[in-house]
Specification:
Helix content is about 80%, strand content about 0%. The protein contains six helices and no strands. The protein has helices at about 5-25, 35-65, 70-90, 95-130, 130-145, 160-180. Helix 1 (about 5-25) runs antiparallel to helix 4 (about 95-130).
Length: about 190
């Protein structure tokens, strides 16, 4: 899928890509090793997406929306929950019965989060921020995803400035690990 445009278009494209991977997982029988490969790809995309949202989207939500602090805090809680699930999922193989439970939990968490963002948050942000501000945020989110970690780091900071400082280093280490193990490659 093509990436570009304002922050809402960028993040919505990410949502569709992850949903496509979830669909591939659901189409395969329990225990199929390909499910783990698709799950790894989904986790990579989710982590990169979350890091970018935490660095740029949620600070903008705090700035532009009247109840921005409460909304951003709720979104960060959703991210923390999904990150714990992805960390647990990382440790199990597709043949492990725990894999089916965890991938089901992750899909439910992410689908609920996406629905909330797309039905509520994005519309509020589009009304409150200028198109120029949304375009700048889209550029920042795309840049952040390029250097973001690809593995869950539940104990890492999720708010600026610490997350912006630490994410590129963790991202570099994760990408080296991924290259060495072949994780995320088809």
């Amino acid at each position: 899928m093509g990436h570009g445009g304002d922050v809402i278009a960028e993040l919505t494209t990410d949502h569709r890509e992850v949903e496509e991977l979830f669909g591939k997982i659901e189409a395969l029988p329990s225990g199929d090793e390909q499910r783990k490969k698709y799950a790894d790809q989904a986790v990579i995309e989710l982590v990169r997406h979350s890091i970018a949202e935490e660095a740029y989207l949620y600070p903008a939500v705090r700035e532009f929306l009247p109840n921005g602090d409460g909304i951003a805090d709720k979104e960060l809680e959703d991210h923390a929950e999904a990150e714990r699930t992805t960390k647990d999922l990382e440790a199990v193989d597709a043949g492990d019965p725990e894999f089916d439970r965890l991938i089901g939990e992750l899909m439910a968490e992410i689908r609920s989060h996406v629905r909330d963002e797309e039905d509520n948050l994005f519309a509020q942000l589009r009304s409150a921020a200028s198109e120029d501000e949304l375009m700048k945020l889209g550029d920042k989110v795309r840049q952040a995803k390029k250097t973001a970690p690809t593995r869950p780091h539940p104990s890492a900071p999720d708010t600026p400035p610490a997350n912006k400082l630490l994410a590129p280093g963790a991202g570099m280490v994760d990408r080296i690990r991924d290259a060495l193990t072949g994780r995320g490659k088809d």
